[in-house]
Specification:
The structure holds two protein chains of two kinds.
Chain A (H helix, E strand, L loop, with lengths): L4 H14 L3 H7 L1 H18 L37 H37 L1 H16 L2 H12 L3 H28 L2 H8 L4 H37 L11 H9 L7 H28 L1 H4 L11 E6 L9 E14 L2 E14 L3 E5 L6 H8 L8 E10 L2 E2 L5 H7 L4 E4 L3 H4 L6 H10 L6 H14 L5 H4 L9 H13 L5 E5 L7 H18 L2 E6 L2 H7 L2 E6 L2 E7 H6 L4 H8 L49 E2 L5 E2 L13
Parallel strand pairs in A: 1-5, 4-9, 4-10, 7-8, 8-9
Antiparallel strand pairs in A: 2-3, 2-5, 5-6, 10-11, 11-13, 12-13
Helix pairs in contact in A: 2-11, 3-4, 3-11, 4-5, 4-7, 4-9, 5-7, 6-7, 7-9, 8-9, 9-10, 9-11, 10-11, 16-17, 17-19, 19-20
Chain B lengths: L4 E13 L11 E13 L3 E5 L6 H9 L6 E6 L2 E2 H7 L1 H7 E4 L13 H11 L5 H14 L16 H14 L4 E5 L7 H18 L2 E6 L2 H7 L2 E6 L2 E7 H6 L4 H9 L38 H5 L5 E3 L2 E6 L12
Parallel strand pairs in B: 3-8, 3-9, 6-7, 7-8
Antiparallel strand pairs in B: 1-2, 1-4, 4-5, 9-10, 10-12, 11-12
Chain lengths: 646, 330
């Protein structure tokens, strides 16, 4: 029962090697790297301005006025007062950068503080603070900035304040949204019960989780702030002559745009390059830090799992079987590691039969089911071996179009969470008729009739009314009935039910199970039933396959397996289920944890947790060998009959 | 088992929503829990069972002071728990702790296990550095985790390990009462057994009192001394676990017991029975279970049935006008 560090350590190291660090991710992004390089270059030059051999940017020389670029001694020419443009450009960039960055810092500090407090406190404080923010936002920002500068008087510092104030709402609203979500989370309650005060919770627990968002917002704001500073200076409200600033240089050049275009084009280009580099870099930072992007939610997987089969089994499918899966291998390639989620699974389903796949989380039971119709996301998943014959047709060899036809028709799915399976914005009627019309060319009115029939089939009373409701108006059990109706819509030959009752209450679960059982007898559809609960298995399944670390370790008729488990893992798994009516039964926990599937041991994967393990268990490949009628077990030292419950 | 009640809840009620808008229109209100009266004796485990939406988590939050009842009183060891939760939450947290349902969500993803576990030691007990280190070692050993885990982050742990960390945190302040809100329902069966065994061991070792909330009857049966069955915010039946499971008197308890899937048993529930809960915004008059109840009569619609003891069993209370007499469940 004790978890030592040993099994987890290698897993951690692997993970570290598998997922690249934030910096490496950033450097992988060419645009962001370019942005970073340009930005660093500009900052370095701006910082080095006092040490560079530049003429004084503010010294006028009327004799040399409006020299073209590449003139002698003035690389970029001179402006209307004969000042060196290169020198003014570098000093100006220095000022613009300083103003942009400090305005961002000020806005980020006050905005985030307001957002944090408003989001965490909620109620009146939130209403008060956010209405204040709304008032600031109600003014067009440039008008507000102008008003602030008008009140404080023109000057660079006042422009800085104005821009900071104008941008506070942007931060406050962003951060408040995140904070509201975070402060309702359980870890905040936990911290409160640990005796932490509100201030400690806010700055010690919530702030670290908000920080990445603050940084993302800052990185995307700096460029904007520099533009705004330039805007104010252009209008003569920012930097005052003779001080150089990119905006005021642009403003000075405006009047002579046609006679001496370089005076305005050069600072304009500089603003463009500077803001562009900051934005590219900022986007890169956002991509790396944003948790949604990190989880891969925005990497678009292709419509069907990639099939790269190293070997295709010789054996032909059995005639009686609706589904015949041979030596299925599915892997996930993440970074440099390869996770063998499914490592050679054989299974078959006859018409109207219900096969239960049982296993702990991470045993590969869902991936097995998802592989059949190519629903494993690629990247990172791919099918690397085996075949799945649906009535003699190899599902891994057929065209994408054929798979599309089969999905939801011959093979349909019922998933765990009906609320996330159903679309929230369409009525259940719309979704049912859509499922029907996607597969057969019938009229809308006929589809409606069929939808009604389906609802009656899943025992939903007054179906005509129920077709018009939205998923959120139904209870969990009702929603799952709708999903089952959808799965039956096109006379499915196989229904893949992935933990369909795990999210439901016991009374509802019992009903859904009996419903599934009745329906498969009526419609003669085979069910592949995935669950972690042996109680549920015995309620509906004819046969059961127990999975461990990506392989089937035991299979047989449900009753046989339950009464006389042969694999020690099956025995243990049954023993650790508390049974109603036997409160005195000591729960027999399985020691340790399942192995990580990127680092499977040689021989039996269960050997480390098995009380019966011997030296030969770790020696080499163990086959799934026949064990009595309709029964097979992957074990060298199986339990004897009746020994399991001793 | 000493007889004094450690926790006493008297007629507690929690209403969400309600009040009026600016223009005086009534806002809808939901009675999450109402008329709950129960007591927990020192050293016992009270199991609370019910389906989702029955108010069991609200009850749990009331007991640990994360939420306050809108009516009724809660006393802990003779003192008013509600007042204490407002005036001195730390004092309450030293004696009553909570284990959350979702083990991973209850750990701050940006904190190491050490800093998570140190928080109660520092803020509740005010221990110095050396004492904290010693206590941390003790805690990790109590929940069977290697001390090396202290410097890792929550995402590196499996559900079962994370829940053990959650238990260690609840234990840290050395409380008397721990409220366990569905502590094993997010876990695999094999891991569930590990955690239940650990909880069992800790209770014996530290003389703890548990309020164990779960929707899983078999789990509740295996851990509880007494059981309260909740339906729609009220207690339907409460009594010694053995009696409730052997001779359920409330038809709802009977339904729950016959619905639970058990290895080797086929379900007996007809697939078209009504499983819908009443609308919480428009609760039906009388007994809320009436619409689903095979024994319901017009009496049940008139008023909500009071909790009354079974004949000859003063500790076994049922809120039903037509309780099932003397029949074991099928």
């Amino acid at each position: 029962m004790s978890d030592t560090a040993a099994p987890a350590m290698p897993a951690r190291k692997k993970r570290g090697g598998g997922r690249p660090s934030a910096l490496r991710l950033l450097l992988n992004n060419t645009l962001a790297t370019t942005g970073l390089l340009v930005l660093v270059l500009i900052i370095l030059i701006a910082l080095a301005a006092p040490f560079l051999p530049l003429p004084d940017p503010d010294v006028t020389a009327p004799a040399d006025r409006l020299l073209r670029p590449l003139a002698d001694g003035h690389l970029l020419g001179t402006d209307a007062l004969g000042r060196d443009i290169l020198s003014r450009l570098i000093w100006g960039a220095r000022v613009s950068l300083a103003v942009g960055i400090s305005a961002t810092l000020i806005a980020a500090f006050f905005g985030s503080l307001i957002g944090l407090v408003a989001g965490y406190a909620g109620g009146r404080v939130d209403a008060l603070l956010m209405r204040g923010i709304d008032m600031v936002m109600a003014f067009p920002y440039i008008l507000l900035a102008l008003a602030i500068v008008a009140a404080l008087g023109p000057g660079l510092l006042n422009a800085l304040y104005a821009i900071a104030v104008v941008n506070i709402p942007f931060f406050a609203r962003n951060i408040r949204g995140i904070t509201i979500g975070l402060s309702r989370r359980e870890f905040v309650d936990a911290a409160r019960l640990s005796g932490k005060s509100n201030a400690r919770i806010l700055f010690g627990e919530v702030l670290p989780n908000v920080l990445p968002i603050i940084i993302i917002t800052m990185s995307t704001t700096i460029g904007w702030m520099i533009l705004e500073t330039a805007g104010l200076s252009f209008l003569g409200l920012g930097a005052q002559p003779p001080q150089a600033d990119l905006g005021s240089m642009l403003g000075d050049g405006r009047k002579i745009l046609f006679t001496a275009p370089h005076v305005s084009i050069i600072p304009g280009l500089m603003i463009f390059v500077l803001v562009m580099s900051i934005n590219l870099f900022g986007d890169g930072v956002r991509d790396v830090l944003d948790p949604r992007l990190k989880s891969g939610a925005l990497t678009r997987p292709v419509a069907r799992t990639a099939v790269e089969r190293a070997r295709v089994p010789e054996r032909q499918p059995h005639k009686d079987n609706v589904l015949d899966v041979v030596d299925l291998n599915t892997q996930f390639h993440i970074g440099s590691s390869v996770y063998r989620a499914v490592g050679g699974v054989d299974l078959h389903l006859k018409q109207g039969e219900c096969l239960g796949i049982v296993g702990e989380s991470g045993s590969g039971k869902s991936v097995t089911a998802m592989s059949l119709m190519g629903l494993v996301p690629t990247p990172p998943g791919r099918i690397t071996g085996g075949a799945a014959w649906l009535e003699g047709e190899d599902l891994f060899a057929v065209s994408d179009e054929r798979i599309r036809q089969l999905r939801g028709a011959d093979v349909s799915h019922v998933f765990q969470d009906p609320l996330s399976t159903l679309h929230p914005l369409f009525t259940v009627g719309d979704q049912l008729t859509e499922a029907i019309m996607a597969h057969r060319p019938i009229k809308r009115s006929d589809a409606d009739k069929r939808a009604e029939e389906l609802l009656r089939l899943v025992r939903i009373t007054n179906p005509t009314e129920r077709l018009k409701v939205y998923p959120h108006e139904l209870s969990g059990g009702m929603r799952q009935r709708i999903c089952i109706a959808m799965a039956l819509a096109n006379d499915a030959k196989i229904i893949i039910a992935d933990e369909p009752t795990t999210a439901l209450d016991v009374t509802v679960q019992a009903q859904i199970l009996s419903l599934l059982d009745t329906l498969r007898r009526e419609s003669n559809a085979a069910i592949l039933f995935i669950t972690h609960d042996f109680g549920v298995v015995s309620a509906v399944c004819d046969r059961v396959a127990v999975m461990y670390a990506g392989r089937i370790v035991e299979t047989g008729r449900t009753q046989d397996v339950l009464e006389n488990p042969a694999h020690p893992y099956t025995g243990k798994l049954i023993d650790c289920v508390p049974v109603l009516g036997q409160p005195e039964r000591r729960l027999d926990a399985i020691e340790g944890r399942p192995p990580v599937v990127d680092n499977l041991p040689a021989g039996c994967a269960f050997a480390d947790r098995c009380p019966r393990a011997q030296a030969d268990c770790r020696a080499g490949e163990i086959t799934l060998s026949p064990f009595g009628e309709d029964r097979a077990v992957r074990c060298l030292h199986p339990l004897e009959r009746g020994a399991a419950h001793a | 088992m000493p007889e004094a009640a450690l926790l006493q809840i008297d007629n507690a009620e929690r209403v969400f929503g309600g009040g009026r808008t600016l223009f005086g229109r009534r806002l809808p209100a939901v009675h999450a829990v109402q008329g709950i009266s129960l007591d927990v004796k020192k050293g016992e485990t009270l199991g609370v069972v019910g389906e989702s939406g029955c108010g069991k988590s609200t009850l749990a939050r009331l007991i640990v002071g994360l939420d306050r009842p809108t009516a009724g009183s809660i006393t802990f060891d003779g003192r008013d728990l509600v007042a204490e939760a407002r005036s001195d939450p730390q004092k309450l947290a030293r004696r009553v702790q909570y284990v959350f349902q979702d083990p991973v969500a209850s750990l701050n993803p940006r904190k190491t296990i050490r800093s998570i576990l140190e928080a109660p030691l520092r803020h509740l007990l005010g221990l110095d550095k050396a004492a904290r280190a010693a206590r941390l070692k003790e805690l990790m050993e109590a929940v069977n985790l290697a001390p090396e885990f202290l410097d890792r982050y929550p995402h590196e742990f499996s559900g079962g390990q994370a829940q053990r960390i959650g238990i260690a945190r609840a234990l840290a302040a050395d409380p008397e009462l721990i409220v366990l809100d569905e502590p094993v329902s997010a876990l695999d069966v094999s891991v569930q057994a590990q955690v239940l065994n650990i909880l069992d061991g800790l209770k014996a070792r530290f003389g703890l009192t548990y309020v164990f909330i779960s929707h899983d009857l078999s789990v509740v049966e295996s851990v509880s001394d007494r059981v309260a069955v909740m339906y729609f915010g009220r207690i339907a039946e409460i009594g010694p676990a053995k009696q409730i499971f052997a001779e359920p008197r409330h038809p709802y308890t009977h339904l729950l017991l016959s619905s639970a899937p058990t290895p080797g048993k086929r379900s007996l529930i007809p697939e078209d029975a009504n499983t819908e809960l009443p609308d919480p915004y428009a609760p039906p008059p009388g007994c809320a279970f009436h619409a689903r109840c095979p024994r319901g009569t017009d009496t049940c619609l008139a008023a909500h049935p009071p909790l009354e003891p079974a004949p000859g069993q003063p500790s076994h209370l049922t809120a039903c006008y037509h309780p099932i007499e003397g029949a074991g469940h099928a």
